[in-house]
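User: Sequence recovery, please. Input:
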């Protein structure tokens, strides 16, 4: 237990100490994000917060992971380094989406083939259980890439992406502690500590943004945690609490990033735009434009995610397929509500 606490404290302190220096350097070198059409801020803000997150996570994991349980962690850390390099390059000199995807795929390959981060079963969804190896590999690669990019797209307003990451780290970190999966718990604790320190500087008015370096790091860590949770839900734990619908609970945990990504891609394709072309169609932008501020928008959306998670956990006796249908039904309703807000805002502007 003390490894976990020390890991959390170490990552918190490293990130907390590093961020002010990063802010000063970024301002001196003019490495900032300037206000624009898509932006939700009105001043130049440094975008290299992900460097502080990466430093806190890597340092604390290496320092406090017991050597005897290190296992495949070396491959996981290699994937983190690749994501860091891609993100840092993109924050300093923007990459095309396709070049970013190549680097992300390389990191995902390391996780799937070397660290054995795989989805091996659909756990009864559509009557399918154990998957053939080649389908397991493709599904795992696809899942990791989707989650990485979902968090990348989620980073649009102050504190939002970090708050979703905190929710996932607390939930799964606690579960991995109960099931005595020390390495995964340490990874969750390391990210949790860094995110909580980062949040001090990212809440409105934000002094720094995490950039692609930070959002993709959160994405790849959350993909690892969720996939391992889905694969090992029923290991004995001291509370004797059994998870019977781990895939559905995993989707519920990732509701906001997955919903936002799917909705934005569909909207862009309907309007015959590239799904990779940035705009202000994200859920947080629409809620923000309805009149709420950054903190209120973040809090509202986080509460919605927590409610969805609570409902799915309490109804897990219904089975994965029924729970996924419930999540999709709510997603459709939520998307309709967002479209109503968007149209209302557009009509209001036309009247003015």
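Assistant: Recovered sequence (352 residues):
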């Amino acid at each position: 237990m003390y490894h976990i606490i020390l890991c959390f404290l170490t990552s918190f302190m490293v990130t907390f100490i590093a961020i002010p220096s990063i802010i000063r350097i970024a301002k001196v070198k003019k490495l900032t994000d300037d206000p624009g059409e898509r932006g939700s801020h009105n001043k130049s803000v440094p975008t290299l917060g992900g460097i502080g997150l990466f430093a806190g996570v890597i340092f604390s994991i290496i320092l406090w992971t017991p050597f005897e349980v290190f296992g495949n962690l070396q491959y996981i850390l290699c994937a983190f380094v690749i994501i860091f390099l891609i993100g840092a390059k993109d924050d300093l000199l923007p990459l095309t989406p396709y070049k970013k995807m190549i680097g992300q795929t390389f990191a995902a390959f390391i996780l799937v083939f070397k660290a054995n981060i795989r989805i091996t079963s659909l756990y009864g969804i559509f009557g399918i259980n154990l998957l053939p190896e080649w389908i397991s590999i493709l599904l795992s690669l696809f899942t990791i890439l989707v989650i990485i990019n979902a968090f990348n797209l989620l980073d649009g307003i102050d504190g939002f992406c970090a708050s979703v990451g905190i929710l996932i780290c607390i939930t799964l970190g606690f579960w991995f502690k109960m099931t005595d999966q020390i390495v995964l718990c340490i990874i969750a604790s390391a990210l949790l500590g860094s995110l909580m320190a980062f949040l001090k500087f990212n809440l409105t008015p934000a002094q720094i943004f995490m950039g692609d370096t930070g959002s993709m790091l959160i994405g790849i860590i959350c993909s690892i945690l969720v996939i391992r949770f889905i694969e090992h839900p029923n290991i004995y734990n001291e509370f004797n609490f059994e998870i019977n619908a781990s895939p559905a609970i995993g989707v519920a945990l990732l509701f906001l990033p997955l919903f936002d990504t799917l909705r934005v891609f569909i909207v862009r394709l309907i309007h015959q735009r590239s799904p990779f072309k940035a705009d202000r169609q994200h859920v947080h932008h629409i809620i923000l434009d309805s009149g709420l501020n950054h903190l209120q928008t973040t809090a509202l959306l986080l509460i919605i995610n927590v409610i969805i998670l609570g409902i799915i956990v309490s109804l897990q006796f219904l089975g994965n397929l029924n729970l996924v249908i419930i999540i999709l039904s709510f997603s459709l309703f939520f998307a309709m509500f967002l479209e109503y807000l968007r149209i209302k805002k557009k009509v209001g502007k036309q009247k003015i």
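Residues 265 and 271 are 10 Å apart (CA to CA).
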